[in-house]
Amino acid sequence: MSSQLSSFQMFLPISDTLKYCLLALAIALFLTALIILACKMHQYYKYKSSILKDAKFMKATSVAKKTEGNVLIQLMQKEMEKLEVHLTPSPPSTESLDDMTSESDHTREFRGKLKFSLNFSKKTMTLLLTVIEATDLPDYSRDPFVRIRVFSKVDEPQSDVQSVLHECETKVVKNSRNPVFDEDFCLSLKNYQLSNTCLKLEVKDFDKYSRHTLIGETRVALRDLKVSETLEFCEELQEKTKDIIGEVLISLKCLPTAQKIEVGILKFKTSSLSIIKERDVYARIDVFSNQQKQKHQKSSLRAKSKVTVFNETFLFSLPDPGKTHCLVLISLYETVANGRKLIGQTSLGNQTKSGHNHWDQMMQTIRQPVADWHPLYI
């Protein structure tokens, strides 16, 4: 009887209150689990979103850097093309590069006029030039003067090389846009063919501390002059042109392991008509790679002659020569009493038109020097 009672007590039904309490606890645990799961899911998607955002940012940064690099390369190419314009002959003649930057800023505007007169004496074979005045010069002109050059072509009909027979300058007129010069120059043309000779007048703005600014130029072919008759001209100034006054022999050698190039200045020759003065000459080499200008190097002084021999080489850093945008600028100077005087310049590289073939030959013959002649412009 007692055992039956205890078994009955063990299987007594649970009260409704306890059931509801257990159900509430289960629901609470379930809701807690859902909240924890939701928090974890939120953290996961937040982490995934930050990763995607970082990836997009890195991609955008990479594209921006690539775009910036392309822009820099395009800017360098434009600068090189601009430089090449000044280093490539433009019919019928060429120009000096000492005013390259300033002239490019004023290529299309009105430059003013230059008034001068010419009288040729066949008996004495002299040309009397009178530089009278300049009028209506641009606003940026402060202290103008006129540089005078007489050019003559060499005897070879196929050659574009010209000789500088005479070079002189007028006085500087201070603070005037309408300067009056009124200066005479007697230029001997003895032993020269008048048909191959021309007169070039450049109006420049004097600068004591920097390069003189070229305002404009005008040319006269002397073959049109009549004997013993004074001709007066009033010519509108034009943008500058260029003249080939010699050639320079340059060698190039690529050293990919050392990441360098070797630039050699071998010879410089001028026309037989050029006036050889007792002066020393030297070459200066400037190298631009990916818009970065390296420190220039100079050759030693050599006595000026019809063919001046240098035979000197110079090393410049050039990482990855096949991909690096490079420009090599060669300038020849002669020493004068008050410093130096530019004889002429030429350029070559993988971004120039005139020197591109030479550069390609260098890249095809690694570690072997390749020499070629390049025209020298003024």
Descriptive overview:
The chain has 378 residues and is an alpha+beta fold. It has three domains: 13-87; 100-236, Immunoglobulin-like (Sandwich); 245-377, C2 domain (Immunoglobulin-like, Sandwich). It is 25% helix and 40% strand. It contains four helices and 18 strands. The strands form four sheets. Strands 11, 12, 13, 14, 16 and 17 form a six-stranded antiparallel β-sheet that branches. Strands 5-2-1-8 form a four-stranded antiparallel β-sheet, with no helix packed on it. The longest helix is centred in the first third of the chain and has 72 residues, at 16-87. The radius of gyration is 39 Å and the shape is elongated. Mean pLDDT is 80; it is low at 84-107. Keywords: Membrane, Transmembrane, Transmembrane helix. The chain crosses the membrane at residues 20-39. GO terms for molecular function: calcium ion binding; calcium-dependent phospholipid binding; clathrin binding; phosphatidylserine binding; SNARE binding. This is C2 domain-containing protein. InterPro entries: C2_dom, C2_domain_sf.
The assigned structural class equals: alpha+beta
Largest sheet: 6 strands, antiparallel
User: For this structure, what is the CATH homologous superfamily of the largest domain?
Assistant: C2 domain
Strand content: 35-45%
Count of extended strands: 18
In which range does the helix fraction lie?
A: 25-40%
Element order, helices and strands? Answer: HHHEEEEEEEEEEEEEEEEEHE
N→C terminal distance = 135 Å
Tell me the name of the CATH class of the largest domain: Mainly Beta
Low-pLDDT segments, ≥5 res: 84-107
CATH-level-2 architecture of the largest domain: Sandwich
Pfam families: C2
GO molecular function, one term: clathrin binding
Protein name: C2 domain-containing protein
Family: Belongs to the synaptotagmin family.
